[in-house]
Structure formats: structure tokens, C-alpha cells
Amino acid sequence: MTTFRHFEDFHAGEVIDLGRKTVSRAEIIEFASEFDAQPFHLDEEAARKTLLGGLAASGWHSCAIFMRLLVDNLLAHSSSEGAPGVEKLKWLRPVRPDDTLSLSATVTEVKPSSSRPTRGSVHFAFTLTNQHGEPVMTLGNWIMFGRKGAAA
Amino acid sequence: MTHFEDFKVGDVTELGSYTFSAEEIVRFASAYDPQPFHLSDEGARASHFGRLCASGWHTAAIWMKLMVAFQKRHAARLIAEGLPLGRLGPSPGFDDMRWLKPVYAGDTISYSARVTGLAESRSRPEWGLMTMINEGVNQDGDVVFSFVGHVFVERRPA
Questions:
Q1: In-domain check, residue A123
Q2: How many other C-beta atoms can be found within 10 angstroms of the C-beta atom of residue A98?
Q3: A123: left (phi over 0), alpha (psi -120 to 50) or beta
């Protein structure tokens, strides 16, 4: 996983393990207090009366955890040049205190850039899965990577 | 007010503005998106961004922060007027998030939400699903961020 990847090193159909992260109650409350201060992300008692049925991480916190795993385990060791967006993201199940989330990426398509010969785009389908093997979040997006031998 | 039945397609809510300081950009990125162009001007100069810019997830998280602040102001107003208050549930996800232009250190982004769809929930009869196009516009009037969000909204009690 620590070998440096350029655009050419991604192949459609490849599955990449991107590590795991355990999220604590304190982290859930800290993130929510700053960005998503709704009762079901802050307080166990208040959360029980909501659709989530108990304290759960902000979906944006799950996105942040996803991104950190992606950077640490792939992008930091690559010629990544950023991403234009995300096509579809689903929050499938609540993320609870002390859940351990594992990130997996499937390469679904690789596409050299027609306008920039130094760059190509790789499409990924990502799944964040909890310790029970249940998917909690899925998303798909394109990420741009520099090609081998191209100046950044 | 503000149960599912009170929203109309086309309703626009201005959520307010937020100025992204270099310090906040680096703090968020250090925790969640530590790529060189989100950590320092120097790191960004080596990339096509050219200078320090915010993580796209930071831009999204601030949308949520301003949306929650708006809802709290709105709820306080309804309670003060003695009006009933519908709850907003969680969200099942979003579509088509676009980071159209970089959000650079010092940029001020104004966020808005426009209702584009209202669907009754078959599985949860007490709730409806509202769809919104959310946008962030910088101080030059450029749309820098958009996504299609979905959120459960409580229906008016029968």
C-alpha cells in the first residue's frame, strides 16, 4: 500500500483496502458540536427519541473519516490532483460510538484526460463498513492523478 | 409552521455567509484531509490550485453548520410565537456534489438552499423526504460548491 501510485497504476476491477478507524463518543460529539449540532449527534437521551434511535455520528463526520483514511492510505502516496466532486453518497446506517469503520475502494473506470496529457481520472466506488460487516456509507467519485513522467 | 406540508418547491432559504480563514482551513485539513494544497501556501504552489484552499469536505461541513444555525434561529422564532415545530430527521445521503472552484483562504462563501422536491415517505408515514439544491457562492459571485441534498421532515400530525 505504500508504493507510490500514478494514473497508470490503477486498473478497473481492482479492490484496494484503505484501512480502518475506530470513532469514539468524544470524537462524535466534538465534530457535531462544531459542524452539525443536532440532538441525535450530541446527546444519547435526546437521540433515543429520534429516527436514529440513539447517538450517531454526523454523516459529514463519516465523510471526514472517509477522507482521512483515503488520504493516509492512498492519496498521500500518489500523484493525486484533487477531485471535482461526488456523484452519489448514501448514509445507509448510523455510525455509533466505538464503531470501527473499514474503507474499501473498487476501481470502476480509468480515463486518460483528453485535454491534459499529463493527467488522467480514476473512478472509484467506496464502501465504509462497520465491525459487523454492515455498510454504513457508500459513494462514487472521480479523482484526478498525474501520469508517470509528468511534472506535477 | 415548518412541517413537511409547509414547504413548497421553489422555496429558497439564505443560510448566511462564512469566511474561511487560513487557520481554519489548515485546522480542518490537518484533522481530516491532510493534502499539501490544504495545509500551506507553499504546498499549494506546487499544485494546480496555486495557493492554500479549503478541503471540499470543509466547504460541505460549513454548509451543515450554517443550516443548523438557521434552523435554530427559525425554531426559536416559532417557539416565541407559540407555533408548533416540526422536526427535521436525518438524511439518507446526497447526489451530485460539485466542488466547482477552489475556496481560497480569505474567501467568503454565502450558502443557500432551494427546495426542488417533496415526497411522502412510504416506509415512514409520519415523515416526508425533502430534496434541496444547496449552493455556495463566493464574494465574486462565482458558484464554488453545490449538491443535491435529501432530508426527512416531520409531517403535520393528522
A1: yes
A2: 10
A3: beta
Which residues fall within 8 angstroms of residue B99, CB to CB, at 6 or more apart?
A82, A83, A84, A85, B56, B59, B144, B145
* ipTM, two decimals: 0.94
In angstroms, rounded to a whole number, what is the distance separating the alpha carbons of residues A123 and A64?
Answer: 19
What CATH number is associated with residue A135?
A: 3.10.129.10
Are residues A37 and B68, on separate chains, in Cβ contact within 8 Å?
yes
Interchain contact B96–A (C-beta under 8 A): yes
pLDDT digits (tens, 9 = 90+) for B101-135: 999 999 999 999 999 999 988 888 889 999 999 99
- Report the residue of chain A nearest B152, measured CA to CA: A51
CATH number for the domain spanning B74: value is 3.10.129.10
pTM of the model: 0.94
Residue A35: which of B65, B92, B99 has the nearest Cβ? B65
Please tell me whether residue A62 adopts helix, strand or coil conformation. Answer: helix
Per-residue pLDDT tens over the stretch A53-70: 899 999 999 999 999 999
Parallel/antiparallel/unpaired status of strands A135-146 and B93-99:
unpaired
As a whole number, mean pLDDT of residues B10-31 equals 97
Do B99 and A52 count as a contact with CB atoms less than 8 A apart?
Answer: no
Query: If you ran DSSP here, which 8-state letter would residue B36 be given?
Result: G
Domain containing residue A96: 7-146
Is A2 contained in some domain?
no
Mutate one of A31, A49, A52, A71 to test the B interface: name it (highest B CB count within 10 A).
A71
